Amino acid sequence: xxxxxxxxxxxxxxxxxxxxxxxxxxxxxxxxxxxxxxxxxxxxxxxxxxxxxxxxxxxxxxxxxxxxxxxxxxxxxxxxxxxxxxxxxxxxxxxxxxxxxxxxxxxxxxxxxxxxxxxxxxxxxxxxxxxxxxxxxxxxxxxxxxxxxxxxxxxxxxxxxxxxxxxxxxxxxxxxxxxxxxxxxxxxxxxxxxxxxxxxxxxxxxxxxxxxxxxxxxxxxxxxxxxxxx
Length: 230
What we know:
Blueprint: H1 8-28, H2 33-44, H3 54-66, E1 71-75, H4 81-89, E2 95-100, H5 103-116, E3 122-126, H6 129-132, E4 142-147, H7 154-164, E5 165-174, H8 190-203, E6 208-217, E7 220-229
Parallel strand pairs: 1-2, 1-4, 2-3, 4-5
Antiparallel strand pairs: 5-7, 6-7
Organism: Crepidotus variabilis
GO molecular function, one term: S-adenosylmethionine-dependent methyltransferase activity
Pfam families: Methyltransf_3
C-alpha cells in the first residue's frame, strides 16, 4: 500500500531522510554558484518544486562522465537545473538537447543556462515532447537520456529514445516508484499506470537491460529506472 505522507510517522522519517541527505551533500557536493542560482531563480519565478535534488543531479553528472558522454538528451527541462548538471558533465565540444513543454519554464531555464555559463552547450526545444520527439532526427546518436516528463507518455518516450541513443548508452527515467503507488495495481492514476506500462514494454524488449533503484531523501520515497541499450 502506498505510503501516507500525512502521518506523524512519515513526517518524522522524512525529516531524518532529509537530515542525512543534507549531511552527505555537504561533504561530497562542491558549491556551484550556477546551480545554486538556477534553483533560486526557478523558485522566484514560481516554478514547481519538482526538479531533481542536488545528489540526484550529481548522480546524473557522474554517470554521464563515467560513460564518457558527449551528447545527452533530456525530456522535461523545467528551470534547467538537471540540464546544467548534464552540461557540466560533457566535454567542451559536447552538447545537451532538452525538451520543455511550457514557454515560461523555458525562458527561466535559458536565463539559468546563461548564468551558469553553459548556454553554448545546450539546445532547448519548446513544445510537447510527445509531438516533437517522434519528428526529431539527429545525425549523431546520444550517449545518455534523462526522462523527467509526464509519465503518461513514458512508453512513447522510451520507444523514441531507444531510436536516438547509441548501443551502450543509458536511459534514466525518473519518478518510477512514486511512494509505492506504481507497485500497487489498485492505483489507477495516469502517472502510475504510465510507469507500469513502460516497465512491461521494457520487460519484453530484448534489446535493453534495466533495473529500478528505490530512493529516499528530501524528495520523499521514489526511485528511478536505469535502462542499458545493448
